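User: Sequence recovery, please. Input:
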């Protein structure tokens, strides 16, 4: 079982020092076990959000796991209050304390669920091809069930996060309701199918980005609107999607919506002089050049 799992992992060479994000659940503990099997020099990082009554117990489980294996353990305490946008706020808090490049235990099943969640949000080719080249997700070709079987066979008792069953989170409903329904309707396991689709779209995305690379290096106000208007619509839209994305105060990047793209295209064409965008911004045009009028300093434009 170990050799088969390791052959599906995308770990760096043996002896490489790596940081691992380990919550105490079976996915992250499986990541830690496999990293040790791959002879990596491991430092485990655990973040306690203090959002659950017994979250401190998870930290103790991870600490004991590390002591038994003589692995360096770093605990990070953050306070994330329950409430709206909890997932995004917790993700932002983790980013703030975790080292850059920390490895996570996301599996092929997580990849498939992300594709579906992003589909429900109306994502384009970028959102439908996540994880594929992400070095921080070395288990992206490993199935969740096989990983959990490996953890149990290793005699490790993983923590149970009850929030993973909470139907108020869209991802949980995708995992427990949508994926099983798709399996039933198709008469097959759709996770490998969705992962393969993501890889195909990633290849297309890579090619599109290579074609657009010289123009992506040009800032928003460098390109004359008359030149933009002469581009094929697909090229114009992809360039604008990149240039009009913004970074929110939680560190998440948001592409423009389809409606925002249409408003931006109207500005490029000269049909209107300006258009309102999310993030408190206004896209305007002067002397055939585009620029942002920003109403909020908390959101940063890309490009």
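Assistant: Recovered sequence (303 residues):
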């Amino acid at each position: 079982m170990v050799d088969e799992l390791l052959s599906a992992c995308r770990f760096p060479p043996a002896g490489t020092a790596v940081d691992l994000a380990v919550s105490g659940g079976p996915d992250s503990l499986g990541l830690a076990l496999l990293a040790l099997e791959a002879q990596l020099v491991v430092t485990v990082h655990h973040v306690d959000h203090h959002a659950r009554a017994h979250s401190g117990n998870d930290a103790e489980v991870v600490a004991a796991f590390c002591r038994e294996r003589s692995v360096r353990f770093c605990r990070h305490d953050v306070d994330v209050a329950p409430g709206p946008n909890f997932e995004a706020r917790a993700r932002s808090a983790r980013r703030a304390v975790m080292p850059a490049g920390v490895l996570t235990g996301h599996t092929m099943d997580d990849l498939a669920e992300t594709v579906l969640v992003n589909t429900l949000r109306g994502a384009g080719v970028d959102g439908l091809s996540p994880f594929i080249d992400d070095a921080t997700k070395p288990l992206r070709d490993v199935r969740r069930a096989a990983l959990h079987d490996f953890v149990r066979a290793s005699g490790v008792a993983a923590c149970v996060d009850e929030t993973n069953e909470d139907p108020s989170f869209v991802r949980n409903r995708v995992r427990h309701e949508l994926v099983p329904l798709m399996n039933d309707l198709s008469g097959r396991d759709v996770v490998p199918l969705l992962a393969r689709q993501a890889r195909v779209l990633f290849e297309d995305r890579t090619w599109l980005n290579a074609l657009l690379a010289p123009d992506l290096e040009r800032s928003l106000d460098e390109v004359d609107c008359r030149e933009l208007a002469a581009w094929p619509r697909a090229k114009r839209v992809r360039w604008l999607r990149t240039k009009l994305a913004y970074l929110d105060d939680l560190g998440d990047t948001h592409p423009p919506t389809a409606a925002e793209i249409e408003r931006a295209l109207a500005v490029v064409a000269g049909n209107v002089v300006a258009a309102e965008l999310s993030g408190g911004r206004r896209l305007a045009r002067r002397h055939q050049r585009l620029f942002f009028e920003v109403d909020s300093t908390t959101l940063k434009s890309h490009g």
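The mean pLDDT is 92.
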